[in-house]
């Protein structure tokens, strides 16, 4: 078959794929195929509020979502089996402030891999048709695209966790100052935390609100604060929490402890600024050394070379 015949067959292939997907969605939407599972049958009897009618839900939830959810679940389980590291993923999800749903994250990784694989299929097919690339090389490109999509989602989670930690560290000195002022004014630890959560907004304020919710649910305040330190994993915040926990458990004056912790938070913020300034200073040396300095040397040496060439035999 010639190259022109293959090129003209693409519209038919795309049309056939669209028709096939449409028929599959129609078959999936038939009432006989929408049999409720055990959770759907038992849910209305154990839920606190009445469940809305399925006819009022969006159409996408009845077709595309229900069609892709089992497939993505199986692909996510396969990714989890191949990669492992569920504990690390759960830890990073907590640090990023996202729900600790490892299965859902694996499904997202599978979706990213599928989308990247589709892009790899298009690229590999184009290379095969235009440049005559061999089939094994094309298959390798597709596999690398799938792997790149899976790894990209994992790297995005790591970046989200790091950026959230940076926001918490930026908010930490101000929140520590507010806590110290509230406790110095005569309020208790729980009342000071509640006042700070009402007056501030941000990631750290949300974590403090979660601590108060845990304390109201039955946990002690030291346990709730220790949960905050475990979720964030920031050393300076962990030291701050340890100081509060020790003061609450031993009955030492909390105001002095909070003032000392606030001073430590300010010092930690200054240290972070100095470290960031040092990194930026090193980054600024790159264009100076590799761009400005060579051009300066070139301008200094080029006139002498021109004179030597003119004065030669």
From TrEMBL:
It is a multi-pass membrane protein. GO terms for cellular component: plasma membrane. It comes from Barrientosiimonas humi. This is Tight adherence protein C. The chain crosses the membrane at residues 6-27, 110-129, 135-152, 282-305. The keyword Metal-binding does not apply. It is found in: Cell membrane. Residues 177-301 form the Type II secretion system protein GspF domain. InterPro entries: T2SS_GspF_dom. Keywords: Cell membrane, Membrane, Transmembrane, Transmembrane helix. The keyword Cell membrane applies.
